[in-house]
Structure formats: structure tokens, C-alpha cells
From TrEMBL:
SUPFAM superfamilies: Metallo-hydrolase/oxidoreductase. It comes from Sporomusa acidovorans (strain ATCC 49682 / DSM 3132 / Mol). It comes from the Bacteria. This is Metallo-beta-lactamase domain-containing protein. InterPro entries: Metallo-B-lactamas, NDM-1-like, RibonucZ/Hydroxyglut_hydro. Residues 28-219 form the Metallo-beta-lactamase domain. Pfam families: Lactamase_B. Transmembrane segments: none annotated.
Length: 244
């Protein structure tokens, strides 16, 4: 499979595997790599069918699968989780509400995030520098993961660009068209009285305290620059008065 590899900052990368087979639209499925002193962390792991593309992309940044120390899932859906079987020396983490989604053999390899004081925050035991918050819109255990070092906010499929083309072919972009389109989408959901919007807004509200440099989704484009302002504008778009 074709893939794109881009560096976000020193020690932080996105791998986007192009998939024209699994769904009825051309899309990209993303996973992310964080290189730390003594740790190599993978955020999401794709499908087993992506193995050759992911191995090749990792080799380009001089990483072999057996060197990955930790795999953290944003949620338990198969296209983000089942590729984790490749990393047989890594510790693996998922939110407890999503662990039942995993195939039984793979689920046995996973630990669950540890609750922290405060109702919606978690930690991956042994992994430092990451803040994990439950956003539970896309699945009961969907989380966002904020990396303090790179400023990347990994949101999985809480919000993503599934099936959308990359603006000017760029995987990482500051496209105002993408940002405005995202806000317009949320505004449209509010105007339509979409029943799931309240849960989305609850999760979005939990992300507003962070000051990320990158908005890293589960599918497609990664948005960069002024991300807190972008999230606040999205919040305002969803807070518009809805039909009575």
C-alpha cells in the first residue's frame, strides 16, 4: 500500500497509509510515532493489511517494530487497533470501555489506561509526558492524547477527515479552507439538531484547556498552527442556537 510520512517536530511523525480497498472511498488511516529517550511510542496501529507500509515507513526513520516500546490506542475500532499485533515487544494500552472491541487474542496483550483524579483523565502506566482525556463520542472509550513535548493532540476519530482529499497534496497543513470547513460542518450539525452533537461538544469542551500545535486525527490531514483558536472556533460553531 502507498503511504505518506511527515515529520511534525523533532521526534514526532505521522504515517498515513492510503487505503482504497477497505471502504468505498479512498482514504488515509493515520498512526503517529513519538521518539523519546528510552521510549518509542506508537499512537494507533492501523489494520494488519497496513503492516508492510508501516514497517517501511518506520525503517525510513530508523525504527524496527521490535524497538517500539509502547502502543497507545485512541479507540478500539479494528482499523486503529488490529495492527498492534505486529509490535510484539511493546506494552499496549486502550481505554477499558473499548477493550471488549478487540479480538480476544489481541485483547489479552492490552493493558487499560489508569484513571487519574478527575473524572475524565487517564494515564498509560510507565509512559510519561502524555495527557489522556476521555472524549467518548466515536466509541465509549474514545480518548484524545496530548503530547506535551511535541504539542500534538491526537484525537483519533473524535474528529477526522475520512475520505477527504489532502489540500494541495499536503498531509500536514495550515489550510484555512480545512479549518473553516470543519467549523462549518459542526455548525451544520448544530443547525440540524444532530442528536449526537451534545456528546461531541462535551468532549470538545474537555480539549479547550490544551494549547496544541498540531490537531492529529485518525484519518487524513493533520492541521497545524493556532489549534487552540481553531478548537474554540469549532466550539462556537457548535454552540449556535439550534431549532426549538
Amino acid at each position: 500500500m502507498n503511504y505518506l510520512l511527515s515529520q511534525l517536530t523533532a521526534g514526532a511523525y505521522v504515517i498515513a497509509v492510503e487505503d482504497t480497498h477497505t471502504w468505498d472511498v479512498r482514504s488515509y488511516t493515520n498512526c503517529y510515532v513519538l521518539r523519546r529517550s528510552g521510549q518509542l511510542i506508537l499512537i494507533d496501529a492501523g489494520l494488519p493489511e497496513y503492516q508492510s507500509a508501516i514497517v517501511d515507513a518506520l525503517a525510513r526513520i530508523r525504527i524496527t517494530p521490535d524497538r517500539v516500546t509502547d502502543v497507545l490506542l485512541t479507540h478500539g475500532h479494528h482499523d486503529h487497533a488490529e495492527g498492534a499485533a505486529l509490535f510484539n515487544k511493546a506494552r499496549k494500552y486502550v481505554h477499558p470501555a473499548d477493550k471488549p472491541m478487540l479480538p480476544a487474542q489481541l485483547a489479552a496483550e492490552f493493558m487499560t489506561y489508569v484513571p487519574l483524579p478527575g473524572e475524565f483523565t487517564f494515564a498509560a502506566e510507565g509512559v510519561d509526558g502524555l495527557e489522556i482525556v476521555l472524549v467518548n463520542t466515536h466509541s465509549p472509550g474514545s480518548v484524545a492524547i496530548y503530547d506535551q513535548l511535541s504539542g500534538a493532540l491526537f484525537v483519533g476519530d473524535f474528529f477526522c477527515y475520512f475520505g477527504e482529499s489532502l489540500p494541495q497534496g499536503e498531509l500536514v497543513t495550515n489550510s484555512n479552507l480545512i479549518k473553516q470547513g470543519s467549523c462549518d460542518y459542526v455548525a451544520g450539525q448544530a443547525a440540524a439538531g444532530e442528536p449526537g452533537l451534545d456528546r461531541f461538544m462535551l468532549g470538545l469542551g474537555r480539549l479547550l484547556e490544551y494549547r496544541p500545535e498540531f490537531f492529529c486525527t485518525g484519518h487524513g490531514v493533520v492541521v497545524r498552527q493556532d489549534i487552540q483558536a481553531f478548537l474554540k472556533k469549532m466550539w462556537q460553531s457548535g454552540s449556535q442556537k439550534r431549532p426549538g
